[in-house]
């Protein structure tokens, strides 16, 4: 067994350390030179690329188009929307100067005080302000609507506690920003994009999610409503995995974005924004992976199949390679990504451990005896089960197996999630049980005071008012006041 796998912390011993170990040992990312800024390594970025490709396709099917907007935002823009600046002020990185001053040796040693900017610039924490300042030049009439743009970019939010992928100062994401003629259209757009995210999470990431709407306290800064998908990690904590916001006319009014309606009268447009980030890679890791390493859903695995030959000499390897080449071609013709690892730099046992660590869904092993018997060994990463099957029709077999693995890891994650959703009406019971994780369906009186007390006393937050849950009025377990519905409360990342 590879040393890297031996050194991987067990989930039961320290779940947080297991996660950090796995990010590094599976070659996904490492810490950069600046705290909170990570280097995403090729294998980790390959997962992000597959996420991007599918999400980009889904966005374009809704009518969104890709664009790019500036990284730097004039500080005055943020102050135009009061709730927005209030929500992001503590996380903003500010550019104040544009030049360093060198000493006699030519080394840059300090900021040149003469190069102070007339107006300080914010490195974008999100792009609503810069985009709405642009949209006012693009929107004039009802014929210009809806306007639906998405951008793939990086953002900066100065985090005090960081963890790779889950919470970093700089991260990659996409942010969609749409403008509409009516409130109804904008609200429908925000809810439609939430469903896009949920579909991607469940069908591609194999991560079951709860869809719902955030409380006023937990809304995006400047939104009238924030819709969310919440996923449950293996330690029972929630991870907000995507959000879609109905912004009303707040930003349109702040930046004077109006259009002439069909009656030739001016109106403010209605807005949405929506986004997911590289946090999804963290969700992928913590939902499926085990003490042997990553478990990746086949649809997002950079390499779906690896083939390892077992040979004692070059002659045997050549014979195996001749048998493998048609299999590789047939798999690739089916759109399956495959790697044939015939390098002699590592023993097969080390290769097996490394590919388990990296979560490659299917491993095929072929030796001289297999060729004689017309068989091949197949191992599936999700269950670690091995079987020997006929080499004839192996490409069709693997194609079906990949589908089965995708379905199986979703079923497993959903079963775990469903087993850890509880109705709870007793606050003392809740305070004890929430320590062990899980989603708690509790009646809430709708007040910020009750919400704040729960957070202060239990470190749990109201994740959302969930959709698809039978809602009946009841009594708030904390305040004893009447409650209209149950909310999901959980500890979270």
Total DSSP helices? 15
What is the CA-based Rg, rounded? Answer: 26 Å
Terminal Cα separation, in Å?
32 Å
Oligomer: single chain
Q: Classify the helix fraction into a percent range.
A: 25-40%
The spatial strand order of the largest sheet comes to: 3-9-10-16-13-12-11-24-27-23-22
Indicate the overall shape: globular
- Proportion of residues in extended strands: 25-35%
How many beta-strand elements? 27
Describe the structure in your own words.
Helices cover 35% and strands 29% of the residues. By secondary structure, the chain is α+β, with helices and mostly antiparallel strands. The strands form seven sheets. The protein has an eleven-stranded mixed sheet. Helix 3 packs across helix 7 and helix 10 (314-333) packs across helix 13 (394-419). The two termini are 32 Å apart.
Short summary of the structure?
The protein has 493 residues and is an alpha+beta fold.
């Amino acid at each position: 067994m590879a040393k890297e796998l031996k050194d991987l912390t067990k989930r039961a011993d320290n779940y947080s350390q297991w996660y950090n170990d796995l990010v590094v040992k599976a070659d996904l990312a490492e810490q950069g030179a600046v705290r909170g800024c990570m280097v995403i390594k090729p294998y980790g970025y390959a997962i992000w690329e597959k996420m991007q490709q599918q999400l980009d396709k889904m966005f374009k099917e809704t009518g969104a188009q890709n664009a790019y907007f500036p990284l730097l935002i004039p500080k005055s823009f943020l102050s135009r929307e009061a709730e927005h600046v209030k929500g992001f002020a503590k996380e903003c990185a500010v550019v104040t100067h544009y030049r360093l001053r060198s000493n006699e040796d030519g080394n840059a040693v300090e900021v040149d005080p003469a190069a102070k900017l007339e107006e300080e610039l914010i490195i974008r924490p999100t792009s609503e302000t810069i985009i709405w300042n642009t949209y006012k030049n693009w929107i004039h009439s009802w014929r210009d609507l809806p306007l639906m743009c998405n951008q793939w970019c990086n953002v900066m939010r100065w985090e005090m506690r960081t963890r790779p992928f889950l919470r970093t100062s700089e991260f990659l994401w996409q942010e969609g920003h749409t403008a509409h003629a009516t409130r109804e259209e904008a609200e429908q757009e925000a809810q439609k994009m939430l469903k896009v995210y949920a579909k991607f999470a469940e069908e591609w990431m194999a991560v079951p999610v709860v869809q719902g709407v955030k409380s006023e306290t937990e809304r995006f800064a400047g939104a009238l409503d924030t819709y969310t998908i919440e996923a449950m990690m293996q330690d029972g904590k929630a991870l907000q995995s995507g959000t879609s916001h109905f912004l009303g006319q707040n930003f349109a009014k702040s930046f004077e974005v109006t259009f002439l309606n069909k009656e030739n009268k001016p109106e403010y447009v209605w807005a949405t924004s929506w986004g997911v980030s590289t946090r999804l890679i963290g969700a992928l890791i913590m939902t499926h992976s085990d003490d042997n390493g990553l478990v990746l859903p086949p649809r997002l695995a950079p390499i779906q199949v690896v083939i390892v030959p077992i040979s004692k000499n070059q002659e045997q390897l050549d014979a195996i390679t001749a048998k493998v080449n048609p299999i590789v071609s047939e798999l690739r013709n089916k759109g399956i990504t495959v790697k044939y690892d015939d390098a002699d730099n590592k023993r097969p046992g080390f290769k097996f451990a490394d590919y388990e660590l990296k979560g490659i869904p299917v491993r095929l092993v072929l030796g001289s005896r297999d060729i004689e018997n017309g068989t091949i060994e197949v191992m599936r990463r999700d269950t670690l089960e091995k079987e020997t099957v006929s080499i004839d029709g192996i490409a069709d077999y693997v194609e079906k197996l990949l589908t089965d693995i995708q379905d199986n890891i979703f079923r497993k994650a959903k079963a775990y999630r469903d087993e850890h959703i509880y109705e709870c009406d007793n606050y003392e019971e809740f305070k004890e049980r929430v320590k062990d994780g899980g989603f708690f369906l509790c009646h809430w009186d709708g007040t910020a005071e009750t919400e704040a007390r729960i957070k202060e006393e239990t470190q749990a937050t109201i994740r959302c008012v969930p959709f698809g849950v039978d809602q009946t009025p009841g009594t708030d377990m904390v305040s004893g006041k009447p409650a209209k519905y149950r909310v999901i409360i959980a500890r979270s990342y």
